[in-house]
Specification:
Shape: elongated
Distance between the termini: 22 Å
Order of helices and strands: EHEEHEEHHHHH
Structural class: alpha/beta
Strand order of the largest sheet: 2-1-3-4-5
Mean pLDDT: 86
Number of domains: 2
Radius of gyration: 16 Å
CATH superfamily of the largest domain: Response regulator
């Protein structure tokens, strides 16, 4: 897999440092810019994680992820390609990196009214491992279930989340706040 080039535009330093640390922990994500100001984005950025303020004031040519602390509609500058809106409070590093991977792959992870209460704890763990990029055999070894059981579990996850494949299941899991 190729490395995903990410930019972080966030005026709150502590939050920006946390986002950068989370993204850098993923070996497939390279943070090429971190700024709290108006620094121009490099042309080769695959995805940007930006504050609601930056989304409203600046134009981004790449897919944009907006972690927001306030519920309600997001005001964004026309032309921005917002592909994900995440709640800051419960945001985890795994959720952020999975969202960045999905956004770079062209998926949209926007708020949904659906909840993930239909997935049991094992299914959620399998979904989280999928989001980290684990394949069936890795999940099987990690959870100590047979590969056939894991394949069946993944099929069930896809069915319950209304996904056609594993990537869509991960995106829907992020959308529902499961990952």
């Amino acid at each position: 897999m190729r490395v995903i080039r990410a930019a972080v535009v966030e005026e709150h330093e502590i939050f920006r440092l946390g986002v950068v640390a989370a993204l850098r922990a993923d070996p497939l994500i390279e943070v090429t810019l971190e700024t709290g100001g108006d620094d121009p984005l490099p042309a080769d950025v695959d995805v940007a994680v930006v504050s609601p303020r930056a989304a409203a004031e600046r134009r981004f040519a790449c897919p944009v992820i907006v972690p927001t602390g306030t519920p309600g509609p997001l005001t964004a500058r026309a032309g921005n390609r917002i592909c994900a809106v995440l709640a800051r409070g419960p945001l985890t590093a795994d959720q952020l990196t999975a969202t960045a991977r999905a956004a770079a792959a062209g998926l949209r992870i926007l708020p949904s009214e659906l909840d993930g209460s239909r997935l049991d704890a094992r299914s959620v763990e399998v979904l989280r491992l999928l989001a980290r990029g684990a394949d069936t055999s890795e999940i099987s070894r990690s959870l100590q279930f047979s590969p056939r059981t894991i394949k069946s579990c993944i099929s069930g996850i896809e069915r319950r989340l209304g996904a056609r494949n594993r990537t869509q299941a991960v995106a829907e899991g992020i959308r529902r706040g499961l990952i």
